[in-house]
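Example for tutorial group B:
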């Protein structure tokens, strides 16, 4: 009977050691030297309540930007730019919400995240 207990204890100990060893060696592989962020935002011509960057599935690209601007800004031309790029006009008119007194825009873009230093939003008549 004593030999069976020692055998069971040895098997349990070996199993725990194998489990602990595999947990200790587990790791994640992350891309090296990837910066995901930007330095500043600039908004001219309107008050921005929120600016949301909609990323690709693997989070390496900004596919679009959702803007919520104060008031009814549907009569304005809304443009966005990253870094020192030429501003791009947002597609279509914004959706004005008279209850919240805000206009929402979704602007299509194609900008790699690791290249962003600055975001600019322009609103003109």
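The residue assignment follows.
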């Amino acid at each position: 009977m004593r030999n069976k207990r020692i055998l069971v204890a040895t098997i349990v100990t070996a199993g725990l050691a194998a489990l602990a060893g595999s947990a200790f060696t587990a790791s994640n592989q992350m891309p090296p030297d990837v910066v995901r962020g930007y330095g500043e935002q600039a908004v001219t011509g309107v008050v921005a309540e929120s600016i949301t960057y909609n990323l690709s599935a693997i989070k390496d690209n900004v596919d679009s930007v959702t803007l919520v601007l104060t008031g009814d800004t549907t009569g304005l031309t809304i443009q966005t730019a990253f870094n020192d790029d030429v501003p791009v006009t947002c597609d279509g008119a914004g959706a004005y919400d008279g209850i919240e007194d805000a206009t929402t825009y979704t602007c299509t873009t194609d900008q790699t995240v690791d290249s962003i230093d600055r975001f600019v939003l322009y609103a003109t008549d």
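The helical segments are 2-25. Compare this with the pattern of hydrophobic and polar residues in the output above.
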